[in-house]
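Escalated from tier 1: nicotinamide-adenine-dinucleotide holo job.
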Amino acid sequence: MKLAVIGTGYVGLVAGACLAETGHDVYCVDNDQSKIEMLNQGIIPIYEPGLKEIVDKSVNARRLSFTTDFAKAVQFADVIFIAVGTPSDEDGSADLQHVLAVAQQIGKFMNGYKVIVDKSTVPVGTADLVRKEISKFTSYPFDVVSNPEFLKEGAAVEDFLRPDRVVIGADSEQAKEIMQDLYAPFVRQGHPVITMDVKSAEITKYAANAFLATKISFINEMANFCEKVGGDITKVRLGIGSDKRIGTAFLFPGVGYGGSCFPKDVRALIKTASDIDVPLQVVSAAQKVNLEQRYRFLQKIYSLYSEELSGKQFGLWGLSFKPRTDDMREAPSLTIMEELVKRGAKILAYDPAAMNEAKRRLSKVSWGNSVTLVQDQYDVLNQSDALIIVTEWNDFRDPDFEKIKSRLKSPQTIIDGRNLWDLSKVGKYGFRYLSIGRKNLL
Ligand SMILES: NC(=O)c1ccc[n+]([C@@H]2O[C@H](COP(=O)([O-])OP(=O)(O)OC[C@H]3O[C@@H](n4cnc5c(N)ncnc54)[C@H](O)[C@@H]3O)[C@@H](O)[C@H]2O)c1
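Tier 2 regenerated the structure:
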């Protein structure tokens, strides 16, 4: 099939490359000229394992190309994916300006029947808005389909090529069949393509993210409880997670969720529901617990130093909002660094993939000068009062504890927001060790 994917970010670029991988001819379109230039030079603008390989393969086979030319891509394609960003608006709702701008462009350049696919995460009812917008500019027939994306950054290529399920919301048989054909190569192992009406598909994406966010907040709340009563959340987690009805996924306590999806999607869902007088109490509580979790972590640090951080220096491991990505959108590291700096601390920070992104972000904030990015993970420890773990990269799981100990100031202290290590292991080296939902080693 001939396809266009509008928006070449974490979702659009992965979708375009994976669709080209199965033999389709794909135009990836973006209005960011510099991004398209990079892609045309063979440079992948984001860190995503395995992406470069499949992009290169399809570009070389001439199945995948990158352009800023909307007209060319729209006229070429039978199926057009909208994969642009839907950030939070000031009131928490999803900002649809990019989606509707793309709909307008599609309408202007239509030259025959096409399937328009909303892949961006958009509130229920958006397909109707997209349909209306396109109709303003064309009388050619078209269908609008909702096909929410469930890939995870860090495993995006794998998730797209082998999805647990594909959700297709379509109100027309023709569009449904086209979409089922398109996805057939990705579900050969028997994973379901679940078809439904458009609105249910739009809701499915938000319901999935709200549920996962709730799981995280639930385990964080249990961790806080464990801390007070002297339990160990890592044991409780295994104890409940081994029940098949519960499962172990998304039950890792920490500093709370961040990233490009959960915070904004939870906000948008709460807003949509409250606008129509259906308050979502469980989801609202999950959001509240999450916001508080970062500050609970910070409070541990403040208390350890009797609320006085001026003159302190902290080494920080992990800047991206989760491992295996360079994405720092709503990353807990940003709040944690900002609050520590506000209290007079200095920070040395390291991340295996997000150093460029961190540099870009820190140059834009008033407190950025108090953070120094260092290229070696152990160099953050030099003359630091403590090591703070924010992101659970595998690179940090088996460190040289002797080296950590020799570089940190005494008393050597680790404040672990991700429970990376067993208490007994860290205890052996004599560190002061604070983590989440477990007893403190002091
Ligand atoms: N990132 C994820 O893990 C993930 C997972 C599932 C769903 N989603 C959803 O997918 C959508 C895209 O997310 P993302 O993380 O890929 O965003 P992103 O910011 O990485 O990429 C969006 C791209 O769209 C481009 N763009 C914006 N307006 C445009 C326009 N008018 N014309 C052409 N290009 C335009 C931007 O330049 C950018 O390259 C969002 O709705 C998001 O919620 C994201």
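The mean pLDDT is 97.
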